[in-house]
């Protein structure tokens, strides 16, 4: 796909990179950067799963970022201090990016498990820390590339402590694997620079290690694998017209005419009319841990053909649970062959996801997955809308005020989410013992449609499902 017309600010950023290589933002020495370790696994059907020692890094803007001569002066406050930052060149020279103590931002990593907390008690009150982390490769210098076309990703999650208004998210973003490291941004991925997503937020003070002095937005394809609390869940691809990380300006950053699809084409079981599928004590019982499997199927089951379907499975108590195929949405009900419980191009057409289709649709998402994306973990809530787009109104069982962060911190400040056993690889290879040992069974949420039955019968013949 062609690049969009890039932001007006981009020539300035490029000019700095070319003309002023000695004026980079500085890496501080006051606080060391020690990346938490998180073991992950890469799997094949023939060889099983191989463990690797990956690491975690928090976003550049979630760490001390201060004036070189005064740690009390922040470099992230907008509008920028005109003395500190009269121009981009001087600003980069005057600012220092420090390491961070990860416990102070609500992060605990041990073995293959990562726990995130929204609030920490400082001795007087609970303060919001809302952590966001990126997966680093074993070298600790660059982000780990996940290339998931014709692959699957699985993880275990415990979100029993997350109620209305919270979002324990695990997602993919087509960030530059080096964190857009350059002569003007020597920190790069090891200090969490280079973030981008399909929302193209233009109120971010620094982009790719440079000050954002002209309201640019940082854009890229985004695959929301998991946005959820214990009451509702959604998975949603968001496409963009550009490749990799790029900038937008003005109308390019807008919702309806912009270079990225902000709404996406997603599946929320409650929103599609299955309120009894996901929640405490329901088919997927969120009061207890479970496994989430997301599969990216291609047209001919190879990594060189277009993405045609994004499918979700759950595993709990030795039972494989396909995503609900029930719906009350008339357009989805009328799909040829019925609703398969998965994201397809026809499904997105039925949901009127016009921007998703306009900006590349499933094919575009698949191309991004093939190039490689960065795995991101976050925990957050929202003052603006109380997360009602996820769990309120027609999207979930939460009322209009349950998701108010003021109410959350008052009634349940210990909110947390734990992700563990993160694996990716060939389809069918990452789920517990290949979905076939230890007596795993297939749970028939409803009579299995012909598409899923054909796969279930095939897998059963391989001894991987017991039906």
Fold and architecture overview:
It catalyses: Endohydrolysis of (1->4)-beta-D-glucosidic linkages in cellulose, lichenin and cereal beta-D-glucans. Belongs to the glycosyl hydrolase 7 (cellulase C) family. Residues 1-24 form the signal peptide. This is Glucanase. This protein has 467 residues and is of the alpha+beta class. The chain contains nine helices and 27 strands. The chain has a 15-stranded mixed sheet that branches. β4 (65-67) and β5 form a beta hairpin. The two termini are 43 Å apart.
List the helices and strands and how they pair.
Blueprint: H1 10-19, E1 26-27, E2 37-44, E3 48-58, E4 65-67, E5 70-74, H2 88-94, E6 95-97, E7 107-110, E8 113-117, E9 119-121, E10 126-128, E11 132-136, E12 151-158, E13 167-173, E14 206-207, E15 210-211, E16 217-219, E17 222-228, E18 233-238, E19 246-248, E20 278-279, E21 284-285, E22 290-298, E23 307-316, E24 319-322, H3 330-333, H4 345-350, H5 354-358, H6 361-371, E25 374-380, H7 388-391, H8 405-411, E26 416-426, E27 441-442, H9 450-461
Parallel strand pairs: 1-6, 2-26, 20-21, 24-27
Antiparallel strand pairs: 2-3, 3-11, 4-5, 4-6, 7-8, 8-26, 9-10, 11-25, 12-22, 12-26, 13-17, 13-25, 14-15, 16-19, 17-18, 22-23, 23-24
